[in-house]
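Task 17 of the worksheet. Students: predict the tertiary structure of the chain below and write it out as structure tokens. Keep your answer in the requested format; marks are given for formatting as well as content.
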Amino acid sequence: MTHMLALDPLAIVGISVGGVILLIISIFLFQFIGLWVQAFVSGAHVRLIDLVMMRFRKVKPRVIVENRITAKKAGIDVSTSLLESHYLAGGHVTSVIRACIAADKAKIELPWETATAIDLAGRDILDAVRTSVNPKVIDCPSVESGRSTIDAVASDGIKLRARARVTVRTNIARLVGGATEETIVARVGEGIVSTIGSADNHLAVLENPDNISKTVLDKGLDAGTAFEILSIDIADIDVGENIGAQLQADQAEADTKRYQATAEQRRALAVAQEAEHKAEVQKNRALVVLAEAEVPKAMAEAFRKGNMGVMDFYRMKNIMADTDMRDSIAGGGPPGEAPESRS
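Model answer:
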């Protein structure tokens, strides 16, 4: 009896601890029981142990259960393991499920692997499916570019300003690795510029603007993109400046400046050559003066050595006087002034 009384406190402690543990477990499981019942009633059965393990794997059980129920009600059976894998990979489970449901209702083939790959690639899979069902219109040029028109010059030099609207539909098969809307806008703009530039004159473009759409559409601009171009419509086209005339005027002005610069260069060269010639004349005159200065010295030397007499001197003076007289008659100046100095 004493032994049993001694065990009673231990039993009480054991029962208390067990009760607390059982209470904690019950509270822990209670948050999953509601989801488990909801999945069971909806026909999308999920094991209770799987719900518990989601908590340890840091997966939100409610997101997985609700999306599995949504898919199951839409006739798509996606296991919780696939949903968990995509969630842990950083994907948007809700968007993928809604996209799969929309694709299934629209009779578009969209396997789960393709949908998750598109979502993990950073594309909005739900918007892609919606665009595949309901094509959307892209403005060209885009609003983000800050330009309102695409400008191009026809062969006659007239600038044309055009705006286009491109109707596209998403190509699910090329969504992974396919180019985005910016590529479509750039290609369409390039095609419009090329078509207008190859036109004989701007009047031909204004008369049949639909030729631009046909020509651009025939080039297959949607190759390698995530879209399929359904139509290209020219929304507006206006006449701009006469670029050809402006270029000709600018060229004429540039030619005028070039010719003026060439003429100025030649004038400067002529002036420089004239200055050089004048300097050469002055140099030669200085040499003449120096040579003339040597004549009296030579005559004095001749007198001293007896090589020249007085009569020879006067005869030379008479010849010089006669020469000066002839020069003065020919040049109209006073005797003794050379014609070069008078000129």
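Marker's comment: The chain has three domains: 17-132, 136-246, 309-343. The radius of gyration is 53 Å.
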